[in-house]
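Weekly modeling sync, notes
Attendees: S.R. (lead), two postdocs, one rotation student

Agenda item 3: backlog of single-chain predictions. S.R. asked that every request posted to the team notebook include the full sequence so nobody has to chase files. The rotation student volunteered to paste the first one in as an example of the format we agreed on. Action items at the bottom.

Example entry:
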Amino acid sequence: MKPLWLWGLALMVLVGALGVAHADDDSDTVKLFKDAGQSAAFFSKSYGYAVFPTIGKGGLVVGGARGSGRVYAQGKVIGDTTMTQLSIGFQAGGTAYSEIIFFQDKRSLDEFTSGNFEFSAGVSAIAITSAASANAGTTGASSSASGGKKDAATSGDFYKGMAVFTIAKGGLMYEATVAGQKFSYKPR
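Predicted structure, as returned to the notebook:
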C-alpha cells in the first residue's frame, strides 16, 4: 500500500489539472456573483476585483487547490492571476468552486498586483449558498454543490481592503486543515 502523502500528492496533481480548465468564462462567473445577494453590491463600491471561474481542490491528508483568473480595475482587464493552495490536516475528497476577490481601493489592488500576494490561513471567504451545504475558504471547510445560486443570500464586508466570496460548483470534501492561498499576478 502506498503512503498517504503519495495519494495526497497525486490528488494535488489532479487538482492542478482541474484548475487550469475553465468551465465557463469570466462574464458568466461575474453574472453569478452579481445575482447572488450582497456580493452584487461590491461591484459598485469596489475599485476592482479578481475573478476565478473555476478553482479545483482536492486532498487526502495533504491537499491542494489551483485556479486561474483575471484581474479587473475600473471595469477593464489589467492582468492574469493564478491561485495555489497547499493544505495539510484531516481531509478527503475533491470539489470545485468559483471565487471573487473585491478590492476596496487602489491601494488594496496595488497590494494584490505587486507580485506574489498571500492570504494567511486566518482569512476566510463568504460562501454563497442557498439550500445545500457549502463552505469554502482559506482555512478549510466542507462543501458540496450549491443550489439556487441566483437568489442566494450572502453577507460580508471588506477586511483590510479586500472581500472574498465563493460559490461551490460541485464535489464533496471534508477537511479540518491549515491552509492559505497564494496568488501570482502577470500584467497584460
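Discussion: group reviewed the output briefly. Confidence is low (pLDDT under 50) at residues 9-24, 130-155.
Action items: rotation student to repeat for the remaining queue; S.R. to check formatting next week.
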